Amino acid sequence: MLSTPNHEDDILLKVENLVVSFHSSRGKVDAVRDISFSVHKGENVAIVGESGSGKSSVALAITRLIPTSMGTIEQGKILFEQQDLLLKSQKELEQIRGNHIGMIFQDPLTSLNPTMRIGKQIMEGAIKHHKLKRKEARDQALTLLHDVGISNPDKRLDQFPHELSGGMRQRVALAMALACQPKLLIADEPTTALDVTVQAQIIALLEEIQKKRNLSIILITHDLGIVARFAQHVLVMHEGKIVESAPVEALYYSPQHPYTKRLLSSVPRIS
Amino acid sequence: MKLTWFAASLLILITLFAIFGPLLSSHSYYETNLSLKNSPPSQEFWFGTDELGRDMFTRLAWGARISLFVGIASGCGDLVIGVLWGGIAALSTPKIDNLLMRIADILYAIPYLLTVILLMVVMGSGLFPIILALTLTGWIGMARIVRGEFLQLKEQDCILATISLGASRSRILFHHLIPNTLGTIIVTVTLTIPVAIFSEAFLSFLGLGVQAPMASWGTMANDGLPALRYYPWRLFFPALFISITMLSFNLLGEGLHHAFDPKSRR
């Protein structure tokens, strides 16, 4: 396992005092309450927590994907390569999304456009960001599909999402996110909607790709089994706050916060 | 399903009639022959003649041209304005969305016939003013439907995933939202076309639409009305064509609606 690098200049993403709130009929609700953390180059960070703990809001806030009609980032800084994403214009954000930060989402059944062929969806990002020609983009999509472990990639390119299984669709979603060689991949519960054997494959694939491309990955999940295997650093979120932040071994062997202890003891064990 | 095909083939027949009808007959739509006025359907005049002895068959074919043209042109106008308006509303901030949709509500609240008649008074009667008037009053339904669909789609992961890949707003609109709404849009257009056709016929019937000697189904029905007791074919044929066209478009729209919506398939 990689030893966690600690140099300041190795930091890829630094989130400082982030506060995100959502508008509801009963006023403002703080979903993320003053959290700070950082992600180093090539590091896997996991954010764990129960439903409603604010972990997905963090993921959406990093790329500023929270719709203004629903919520706002109240305060804080999101420094990606020393640049504050909160100060960027919409146009600048479009350049960063996909190009420098890729994302994959929970439900592969809904995260692909049902009316567009797989190949075209994968090529979209590279054509926009890297100004590739269609032919080059198609070749690249072919390699990507191969990399994410899809058989017969040249046939799959021209298929529609409904012709693929859930696990394959998540692989396609991953290929889309990787198309522009982002430095950071945010995976928002990428395995929750998949069955257990496929979950393991997807996690193994993420690990393999992370090593190959020296990516940083933020994995958001409530599955502690995945975290133990995958991450180097774990952030435990509860009610919008980070209650514990520790290297993975420390967290599992000596959890400090009572909530972390409860979370760990809630994992069903067969023994 | 059979009914849909039936309706589609009727529409094809009407279109063929509109295109080739005037070529089939040896008379023109404006040629009068007072000695042969009000003659019943015969071998010479398949659908009879009117009070000036003009051939009803040719005039009905010209009417079909006008009706289909008005219907399709204002359907396309509705499509463009409605999709853009609804799409922009759905993709903008809530404030702009609110503003755009309230403007649409206000326009919708004015009786559409009043708008149409006012426009025709200002612009004079003719084909273009009718199409413009029908478009200006007809796009609101489309805008509402498109906005509703987009708001629903916008929350879905596939759009979020596209935004997370850095796609621009126009790309999301034209490559992701519109293709996913195409079924609904086509159905809505198919159902607005007969409304436009009927409105044109109705306006012409009131004397506001197409002027003589140009033939429109509405004008012909209006001309035939006083002679209903003695020369019933003069009202019967235009009314029949209006009814068949309306029915076919509605059946086709209904069929397409079922075909595009997997939930309503039996």
What is the strand and helix layout of this fold?
The complex is a heterodimer of chains A (271) and B (266).
Chain A: E1 11-24, E2 27-40, E3 44-48, H1 55-62, E4 71-80, E5 83-84, H2 90-96, E6 101-104, H3 118-129, H4 134-147, H5 153-156, H6 166-178, E7 184-188, H7 196-213, E8 216-221, H8 224-230, E9 233-238, E10 241-247, H9 248-253, H10 258-265
Helix pairs in contact in A: 3-4, 3-6, 4-6
Chain B: H1 2-24, H2 56-91, H3 94-109, H4 112-123, H5 127-154, H6 157-164, H7 169-205, H8 217-224, H9 233-260
Question: What can you tell me about this protein's structure?
Answer:
The complex is a heterodimer of chains A (271) and B (266). Chain A is of the alpha/beta class and 271 residues long. Helices cover 36% and strands 27% of the residues of chain A. In chain A, the strands form 2 sheets. A 6-stranded mixed β-sheet of chain A has the order 6-7-8-3-9-10, sandwiched between helices. A 4-stranded antiparallel β-sheet of chain A has the order 2-1-4-5. In chain A, α3 (118-129) crosses α4 and α4 crosses α6. The longest helix of chain A is centred in the C-terminal third of the chain and has 18 residues, at 196-213. In chain B, 74% of the residues lie in helices and 0% in strands. Chain B is built from 9 helices and no strands. Chain B is elongated, with a radius of gyration of 22 Å. Chain B starts with a helix and ends in a 6-residue tail after the last helix. The chains are: A alpha/beta (271), B mainly alpha (266). Chains A and B meet through α2, β6, α3 and α6 of A and α6 and α7 of B.
